Amino acid sequence: MEIVKIDQIPVTRSPRGPKVRQVLSHQSVAINEVILEPNEELPPHTTPVDVFFYVRSGSGKVSIGDEEQEVVAGDVIFSPKDIPHGLKSTEGRFSVLVVKTPNPAYGE
């Protein structure tokens, strides 16, 4: 059994700008926490695998393709592979678990 204490994982900076935590990395899945402060964003980008976003805390906007929606803590959002997606904090701190499946670091 593997138990991850997310809040005990050190926070680093992503090459795209926001704070991140690498929560879990296995061949079948990669999970990172993206932490956005007010008015910060993770710019739109594509991934070669499907992505799920789980809003851990706060509220903000998720963009997928041409769509953009307000989301709040507890929401789960699906983004298909090869479609641009991004995150924006609108007010307070916005924390999102980003789940990539399969893990793109292992190739397909």
From TrEMBL:
Domain (Cupin type-2) ranges: 33-99
Domain of life: Bacteria
Pfam families: Cupin_2 (PF07883)
InterPro entries the UniProt entry points to: Cupin_2, RmlC-like_jellyroll, RmlC_Cupin_sf
UniProt xrefs under PANTHER family: SLR8022 PROTEIN
Protein name in UniProt: Cupin domain-containing protein
Organism field: Candidatus Fermentithermobacillus carboniphilus
